[in-house]
Amino acid sequence: MITDFSQRLIVQEVSPRDGLQIEPTWVETQDKIALIDQLSLAGFSRIEAGSFVSPNAVPALRDGEQVFKGILRRPGVTYVALIPNLKGAQRALAAGADELNLVMSASQTHNLANMRMNCEASLAAFAETVAFASGSGTGLNGSIATAFGCPFEGRTDEDRVLRIVDAYQELGIRGITLADTTGMANPRQVDGLVRRVLQRVPAADLTLHFHNTRGLGLCNVLAAYEAGARRFDAALGGLGGCPFAPGASGNICTEDLVNLCDEVGIATGIDLPLLLKLSRGLPALLGHDIPGQLAKAGRNCDLHPVPS
User: Fold this and answer.
1) Whose CA is closest to 226, among 273, 253, 264?
2) Annotated catalytic residue within 242, 253, 261, 301
3) How much is the mean pLDDT over the chain?
4) Which of 250, 198, 206 has its CA nearest to residue 232?
5) CA 73 to CA 150: how far, in whole Å?
6) Residue by residue, what is the 3-state secondary structure of the chain?
7) pLDDT tens, position by position, 254-286
């Protein structure tokens, strides 16, 4: 049970990247820019604004350069780009990304499906990327997809995840993300792995990335927070999902997470009314309903008139 709510929880907003990557409807570049600009006003210190993967692989994000060059950058906000390889890193740096997020799966099968190479080849390619980015002042983060479970292989061995953490650090990658790519984690598993990783990685450099595929996303956040984690990915409206993972559904919902924190007294610094306004505009932008709950139900303090 959590007894100390004194430490701030950092929310990294990922809807412009992980949220939109699986959307079948094309979102215009100017609409992406407008969304990121509004999110920049909401109190986030970190926004994953896009990716620089092959346009053939993820056509929904083929306008990464235009997005990064078009956004109005707010002081104190780090704008992150997901990159798959050296070419992606070159494009991202040219577009002005503040941080590069490299991704490899703990699962060999998922890495082959996602990256078209085995894990060893991914690590070798990351070495080239790190060397290229060295001296640029751009931050580096290494994400470990399927860190808790793989839809092809089942539960992921903790020791394997720790070996990948060590390999990232040996390459010079400071930030680490543990990603529950298809929502297979449970709170007890999260507690155990986070505590072990925090023996290697400072809390300020560790991010947890949960999906709500099986309804345990916010439970896993609280378990990770209690174990010492302080930074979490979330997507406005609960958007998102991995195009290369069967059954993958959305990320944990940003406004639902911020509401949870508000209700139990964990500070985030995020403007929840603004998030709700933005979230309630997503169905018109995307052409479908969104999975987030708070935008539908309202906050506890949003009272209703007594029926006549």
Assistant:
1) 264
2) 242
3) 94
4) 206
5) 36
6) CCCCCCCCCEEEECHHHHHCCCCCCCCCHHHHHHHHHHHHCCCCCEEEEEECCCCCCCHHHCCHHHHHHHCCCCCCCEEEEEECCHHHHHHHHHHCCCEEEEEEECCHHHHHHHHCCCHHHHHHHHHHHHHHHCCCCCEEEEEEECCCEECCCEECCHHHHHHHHHHHHHHCCCEEEEEECCCCCCHHHHHHHHHHHCCCCCHHHEEEEEECCCCCHHHHHHHHHHHCCCEEEEEHHHCCCCCCCCCCCCECEHHHHHHHHHHHCCCCCCCHHHHHHHHHCHHHHHCCCCCCCHHHHCCCCCCCCCCC
7) 999 999 999 999 999 999 999 999 999 999 999
Q: Which domains does the chain have, with CATH numbers?
A: 10-297 (3.20.20.70)
pLDDT tens, position by position, 56-108: 889 999 999 999 999 999 999 999 999 999 999 999 999 999 999 999 999 99
Q: Facing residues of 82 across strands? A: 51, 101
**Whether residue 242 lies in the annotated active site:** yes
**Token duo for residue 235:** 């997507």
What whole-number distance in Å separates Cα of residue 212 and Cα of residue 257?
11
- Please give the Cα distance from 149 to 129 (Å, whole number): 27
CB 201 within 8 A of CB 165: yes
